[in-house]
């Protein structure tokens, strides 16, 4: 452990794996001073990596400035710069990495590369005061059930094809729903689902501990096209089936690991129905259900800054020439020496 930093040392974290560009500033004792998130909203359709990267480059200066202002610290007060090194979309990751390298070399401070999935877990633990949870991380690009075991965050279950958030978003666009500033497509589906009454069966695909959403998505889109059921009923059924699959795998990981906490994070964690399903399995296993508030559950710079601090304290800094981004960097490849010791 490096001990010479006081709580008044600060880390700046840059997140840019997909459609959000975000900057967080944290003190070494885990106080969040700023967490500014700027989302790229495509005019229509899904994210185009190069367009998103262009957005990140355009807003980077503004977001950094706002973060410094909110935090009330000057660039010279920053002791380390952390960035999301992967996994994610190449052009988006590279834009964030470029900004981080420039800032670290200008300020002459260490650079730390952070795994995005580890960061989701670490900020969740910090904010929801969890110690050793089974985590369900569900977003537009990821669907992971994980827990710490033998020096790593192990992956107990994951999607074999598309992520659950992506599945919901594609369905929502097919249904003619439009993302608005501040309202995710998943939230629009959730609103519709709350008015649904009739359950329509959809394919439930859990293979071992893994999940699959592509056949499920095709079937849901076919239901839309048949026009036999209301959109409310289809949204309701889609949520019931998809979230039951996620809950089943999380429950099995909980039973296997005998952990006493369940942490729900990622953009999809905002969903009330998913929260209630997970809460009930947690209660059945006498585990505490730990909720991560939205600004720390979706992609955010604070999680990168916090994980940067943890890694830095274990001397995991990166020379600039080794700071290439890792598009497919898996959660279970990352050493996390700050956990369990
Ligand atoms: P990652 O890079 O981690 O894969 P991401 O770019 O998808 O993340 P997030 O902000 O973590 O970003 O998650 C966005 C996803 O969360 C979208 O698929 C969105 O529809 C979904 N989402 C947001 N709110 C809700 C909700 N209330 N119910 C279901 N899904 C939701
Ligand atoms: Fe994420």
Describe the 3D structure.
- The chain has about 350 residues and is of the alpha/beta class.
- It contains ten helices and twelve strands.
- The strands form three sheets. The chain has a five-stranded mixed beta sheet with strand order 3-2-1-4-5, sandwiched between helices.
- The mean pLDDT is about 95.
- It binds adenosine-5'-triphosphate (ATP) and fe (ii) ion (FE2).
- The site of fe (ii) ion has 5 residues, from helix 3.
Keywords for this entry:
Nucleotidyltransferase, domain 5, globular, single chain, 10 helices, binds fe (ii) ion, 341 residues, five-stranded mixed sheet, alpha/beta, binds adenosine-5'-triphosphate
The helix-strand sequence is EEEHEHEHEEEHHEEHHEHEHH
Please give the largest β-sheet: 5 strands, mixed
Strand arrangement within the widest β-sheet reads 3-2-1-4-5
Supply the number of helical segments: 10
First-residue to last-residue Cα separation: 12 Å
CATH topology of the largest domain: Nucleotidyltransferase, domain 5
CATH domain class of the largest domain: Alpha Beta
List how many beta strands DSSP finds: 12
Please tell me what the overall shape is.
globular
Quick one: CATH superfamily of the largest domain?
ATPase, nucleotide binding domain
- Rg to the nearest angstrom? 20 Å
- β-strand percent reads 15-25%
Bound small molecules, deduplicated = adenosine-5'-triphosphate, fe (ii) ion
**Structural class by secondary-structure content:** alpha/beta
The appropriate CATH architecture of the largest domain is 2-Layer Sandwich
**Fraction of residues in helices?**
40-55%
How many structural domains can be distinguished in the coordinates?
Answer: 2
Mean pLDDT: 96
- Regions with little confidence, pLDDT below 50 for 5+ residues: none
